[in-house]
Specification:
There is one protein chain. A seven-stranded antiparallel sheet has the order 14-13-15-16-17-19-18, with helices on both faces. The chain has a six-stranded mixed sheet with strand order 3-5-4-6-7-8, with helices on both faces. Strands 9-10-11-12 form a four-stranded mixed sheet. The chain is built from 23 helices and 22 strands. The chain is globular. 40% of the residues lie in helices and 17% in strands. Mean pLDDT is 88; it is low at 1-20 and 300-309. By secondary structure, it is α+β, with helices and mostly antiparallel strands. The protein has five domains: 2-147, no CATH class; 163-297, no CATH class; 305-416, no CATH class; 418-493, no CATH class; 498-669, Phosphatidylinositol 3-kinase Catalytic Subunit, Chain A, Domain 5 (Orthogonal Bundle), CATH 1.10.1070.
Length: 671
């Protein structure tokens, strides 16, 4: 396994007679565009044995044929026999398929020959920036592992994240073979999709062009590519209309009248098998858009998304923006070379965003912690997964996948920047010294809140570490631009579960599942209420993305962990009765999804009152220990944590759990 990883991690540039061959392009530059701004070529094939890139029109198979013909012509010219079958096979094995899209070159690797794919990658970087070269087909485990071991998850071509991006992807997937882009192209499978709408438009062509395209459909509709996928397929057509409908037709021998007649017959048959909603190509039609998107992103092993790569839950679906990482070879730390490219191109906005300064800082932290790292992949969360409105302060969240020698599998960590750090305090107008002091005080406050939450029964992640990374300041205060500041962040293990607000609807129909779920939710509601967890707007923060349900091997709920204690101890003054309506909402919003909402309510409220009562009894039993926990901290009635802790305990002591239970029940029943 170790030698395999080394091969995946290092792809030597091809050396022939002691010299690196310069890349030769047959056709246009892969990203060359015409006067209308369209790519001149949508596919390419690179041959690593001779550093040759073919971009002439056609398909990958015809480009490989063109390459072999070109080699044989060169050999004949200097008096050498054409390639033998074995030599020809070796040349073809050195080829790698490319797809050009927008400003990117996408590599479609052979899973069984990743070394060749990485050679092609290095060769391409002679003419295309590394940031614009990505990999396809990562649903395959061999491809995924090869990219992972290089610390290069960011090289994966991402799927669209919004309807607008889906429409853009569909638009840019248009491709032609010998002429106009009448096909939609599945980049991973290499299959060209022909819709009824595009087929019907062929009728407007003259006889010569119509003959050409019908012959093209016949030629490629009945063959497979080297991935063993069809070269061409008909969108939403069943077996009643396929390439077999074209096989018996010799379009070159038909006179114009007969040609048109057969074309109309084929069009009618295509029309008959396609459902009405799919006969017109309309990206604004949600059903058509979603179906063509599914067809274009389908792979043999299923559609891949970023969270599947790292084994993350569906709540992270397409939300991670992977950044350049690092790997170790023979004990040496090797950062992704794209960092060097960014250093040579200061001011490039794309590279600056990609080469996030904090990413390097996180990697250095892991290097200091582990002496035997193999690789690190860092990802940036695109947006908060919580439904609550974002408030001021820093909200950056990152995810890290690390592998070290003592662990058989990867470790996944969540990295969250502290909301108020030196940067934010400087932006408020504080002096550098005051900004540093207040940042440390806030860090202490966050950790005190965590301790307080655990003391009062909130089920938080067991391990949270406070760290700092160095970054340069470029905020509102120009006099401090360029100085190095140390920004705090918190690191915790990733929780492999599902957030309560993202539980699949069908699970609530299973009564056994729903009742266990209700019990866990009720148990979590009690400490959440006790610590006054609210937003700055005064609304209760609960059941909105931070509560994570863990399931056993049978898929049944066994635990609920609060991933982040944001908002705790915010409201430390209000009477707990005022929160009752908010703690009715978790039941109310699930009401129509449940097979037995009455029993769900009963279990939820019973768990709430039992948990609340247990915490209250624990406090009364060990009152002195609780009261003195933060006695050594500064007490300030304007809102220091020691004062908040004092008020929360007093409120807990006076509370009536049964009265709270009845108030919540009343709010549930009145909805």
């Amino acid at each position: 396994m170790k030698s395999e990883k080394k091969l995946f991690a290092t792809a030597e540039t091809q050396i022939i007679q002691g010299e690196t061959l310069k890349l030769e392009i047959v056709g246009d530059h892969p990203l060359a565009k015409d006067d209308q701004g369209n790519l001149k070529s949508r596919i390419g094939t690179i041959f690593t044995n001779n550093n040759t890139l073919i971009t002439i029109p056609g398909i990958h198979a015809t480009q490989r044929m063109a390459y072999i013909d070109r080699l044989n012509r060169k050999r004949r010219k200097i008096g050498i026999d054409p390639l033998s079958d074995e030599e020809e096979s070796n040349e073809l094995k050195s080829s790698v398929d490319l797809i050009m899209e927008g400003n990117e070159v996408l590599i479609r690797p052979d899973p069984d020959n990743m070394i060749i794919a990485f050679k092609a990658d290095e060769i391409l970087q002679e003419i295309v920036s590394k940031q614009h070269v990505k990999f396809l087909y990562v649903a395959n485990k061999q491809v995924k592992d090869a990219i992972k071991w290089r610390g290069e998850y960011w090289r994966i071509s991402p799927l669209p994240k919004s309807p607008e991006e889906m429409m853009q992807m569909i638009s840019t997937s248009r491709i032609g073979i010998s002429g106009q882009p009448i096909y939609y192209y599945n980049k991973a499978k290499g299959t060209k999709i022909l819709t009824f709408d595009e087929f019907s438009r062929l009728g407007a062509l003259d006889d010569k062009e119509l003959r050409k395209y019908l012959g093209e459909i016949k030629q490629y509709g009945c063959c497979c590519n080297r991935l063993e996928n069809p070269e061409m397929a008909f969108f939403m057509a069943d077996k009643a209309f396929s390439c077999s409908s074209f096989v018996s037709k010799d379009f070159n021998k038909l006179d114009p009248v007969e040609l048109r007649k057969i074309y109309e017959e084929l069009k009618k048959r295509f029309w008959d098998v396609v459902p009405p909603e799919f006969r017109v190509d309309d990206p604004s039609n949600t059903e058509w858009r979603n179906r063509i998107f599914t067809v274009l992103t389908e792979q043999k092993e299923g559609v891949v998304s970023e969270e599947q790569i790292a084994g993350l839950s569906s709540e992270f679906f397409m939300q991670i923006e992977w950044l350049p990482g690092a790997r170790f070879e023979q004990g040496e730390l090797i950062f992704d070379p794209v960092f060097e490219e960014q250093a040579k191109k200061p001011g490039d906005p794309v590279l600056e965003k990609l080469c996030d300064e904090k990413s390097r800082g996180f990697i250095f932290s892991f290097v200091r912690e582990y002496g035997d790292l193999e690789y690190v992949n860092i990802g940036r969360m695109g947006k908060s997964l919580s439904k609550r409105t974002a408030s001021v302060g820093r909200r950056d969240v990152y995810i890290a996948e690390i592998k070290h020698g003592k662990s058989e599998k990867e470790t996944v960590r969540i990295l969250r920047m502290q909301k108020w750090g030196v940067h934010e305090r400087l932006d408020e107008g504080k002096s550098l010294l005051d900004a540093i002091i207040e940042s440390e005080e806030y860090n202490d406050y966050i950790l005190d809140r965590r301790l307080g939450c655990r003391q009062l029964g909130m089920n938080l992640p067991h391990r949270v570490i406070s760290r700092t990374i160095a970054e340069r300041y470029y905020g509102n205060r120009r006099e401090y631009h360029g100085i190095t500041i140390w920004s705090p962040y918190f690191e915790r293990d990733y929780i492999y579960g599902t957030a309560t607000d993202k539980t699949p609807v069908f699970k609530y129909r299973d009564e056994s599942y729903a009742l266990k779920y209700a019990h866990l939710l009720g148990c979590a509601a009690a400490p959440n209420m006790i610590v006054g967890r609210t937003g700055l707007d005064g609304g209760v923060v609960f059941d909105d993305g931070d509560e994570v349900i863990l399931e056993d091997k049978d898929g049944m709920p066994v635990d609920l962990v609060v991933a982040d204690h944001t908002g705790t101890f915010t409201d430390y003054q209000s009477d707990l009765h005022s929160f009752a309506a908010d703690y009715a909402k978790p039941v109310v919003r699930r009401g129509e999804l449940l097979s037995d909402s009455k029993e769900f309510t009963h279990v939820y409220l019973l768990a709430f009152v039992e948990r609340f009562s247990r915490i209250q009894q624990e406090y009364k039993k060990r009152k002195r220990a609780f009261d003195s926990l933060f006695k050594g901290k500064r007490r300030d009635e304007r809102g220091s944590f020691a004062y908040r802790w004092e008020r929360v305990l007093d409120r807990l002591n006076r509370a009536d759990p049964l009265r709270l239970q009845e108030l919540i029940r009343k709010h549930i029943s009145t909805v």
